[in-house]
Design goal:
The protein is mainly alpha-helical and about 120 residues long. The chain folds into two domains: about 45 residues, no CATH class; about 70 residues, no CATH class. The protein is built from four helices and two strands, in the order ααββαα. α1 packs antiparallel against α2 and α3 packs across α4. The radius of gyration is 20 Å and the shape is elongated.
Length: about 120
């Protein structure tokens, strides 16, 4: 089978799957998934699939922690987690659930290495 034909078949199959499985049934949202899959530039990148939202950049840049700079500017959800996990908040219980590649690991590792006494974490 030719890879270009196989890629086209996979794309068409994914489109049908998304429309069939996730098309809203109410009148207000009807057609939303079809419009989404019709614009292939938003979710198909060559022979692979990419669906994701951009993560909002935080306010502190790379300087959130006093003892070190982060490698990249933090996302807003990371800064919110870091704030909750700080000793100022008595290391509040925090659950971080975001998409792949969003920096969940850094949410608990960076505070752990910042030199403050504050968190114990569980990774599931």
């Amino acid at each position: 089978m030719l890879p270009s034909l196989l890629a086209r078949d996979i794309q068409q199959g994914l489109q049908q799957f998304l429309i069939t499985g996730f098309e809203p049934s109410d009148d207000f949202m009807h057609g939303l998934m079809r419009r989404f899959v019709d614009d292939k530039s938003g979710w198909l990148k060559g022979p692979y699939l990419q669906v994701g939202l951009p993560f909002a950049t935080g306010q502190a840049g790379r300087h959130f922690f006093k003892s070190f700079k982060t490698e990249f500017p933090g996302h807003s959800h990371q800064e919110a987690a870091w704030s909750r996990l700080s000793s100022q908040h008595l290391a509040d219980h925090t659950l971080v659930a975001t998409g792949t590649g969003s920096g969940k690991t850094e949410c608990f590792l960076y505070p752990r290495h910042s030199g403050q006494n504050f968190i114990c974490y569980v990774t599931l």
